[in-house]
Amino acid sequence: MSSEAMVGASSPLSKDELIAFIKSIILNENQQEMDPFYVLDLGALNPLFQTWTQNLPMVQPFYAVKCNPNPDFLRQMAALGAGFDCASRAEIESVLSLGVSPDRIIFASTCKPESHIKYAAKVGVNLATFDSIYELEKIKKLHPNCSLLIRIKAPQTSNSTKFGALPDEVKPLLEASKAANLQVIGVSFHIGSRSGINLNALEDAMASARTIFETAVQLGMPEMHVLNIGGGFKSGPNFTDEAASAVKVALQKYFPSQDGLTIMAEPGRFFAREPFTLVTNVIGKRVRGGIKEYWINDGIAGSMKFLQYDNVICTHLLADNGSSDNENNPTSKGVKTYDSSVFGPTCDATDMVLEGFQLPDMEVGDWLVFHNLGAYSSCLGSDFNGFKTSAIPTFLAHLDNKNSS
Description:
Elements: H1 3-6, H2 15-27, E1 37-40, H3 45-55, E2 59-64, H4 71-80, E3 83-86, H5 89-96, E4 105-107, H6 114-123, E5 127-130, H7 133-142, E6 147-151, H8 167-179, E7 183-188, E8 192-193, E9 196-197, H9 199-218, E10 226-228, H10 237-254, E11 262-265, H11 269-272, E12 276-288, E13 291-296, E14 314-317, E15 338-343, E16 352-359, E17 367-370, E18 394-396
Parallel strand pairs: 1-18, 2-3, 2-11, 3-4, 5-6, 6-7, 7-10, 10-11, 13-15
Antiparallel strand pairs: 1-12, 8-9, 12-13, 12-17, 14-17, 15-16
């Protein structure tokens, strides 16, 4: 790990420290006027990783790189001991470039371009998922030594049919893998959602995986020894009180004391959401029918698409030198707030960030800070309408270092 990424990474910044760091960036003469930016608090990762390992010590996290591929963030995840769920050659390259061993990577895409499979074979990424006979054929041709997990569509999940073998497809796929002399070493499923783990679906998926383990033995295949329980986990009390408990209960019910069983998961937002803060500038204002309307320089058409699926926590910073105090925080008691709407900068009519939201009276040039915005945010930025939200800089949140990454 680079020394820069590790500076200040031992513990999270307090709210006051974070705001002070944001002010320092706004005042930095090298920061272009009114540009949005992210702040990454690497220290916030430590308690999250500790929470995971304390509550699910038997489950190895393989971070879903797609959720947020920031290299400093990935480097810190690697230093903490995480594995990585990669879905493309580019994601594999980014992880390997950090010095991560290829045996800490799962190629967790059920439909992979042939050139990406060739690359995985070349660099030694030897674990991948599949859910169709056609994927088996590609792997047989291009990476026959790759160990495989059969991805199943778990019961009680969404109606999407994009991922996962259906129940009546599993046995034929196992038979085909055996005939092709491909090694299927376990089962993968994903039952999470943006709102968190569906606990009933988790138990049903575990039951299905247990049946598939037994089916493989009945077919004369080597006993499976890897169970991948996917993602969908969110940090917070519900993880400790509900999700982690449900995982342990289901494992005890369907995989009690199975020797040599490796259990893995593919969490993304659990780790990425909290360490990142997005800072945006108010670039426009209108008052209409008692509603205060604002425009900011990032939005749903940019890197804030998934804001609609997360709880919104905002902090208002005044324009003058980035000053702020508690009375300017829209969540503070006793501050007069107004029904407000916040739009992104583009000409897309659906580019609305907030609607019917309580905010204090803001002016053009003020700053609106969005906390907990690291999951599926910056990675979705685009250059639509000429607003380059794909290139929003990220600053490492240690008070003695203002260099962007």
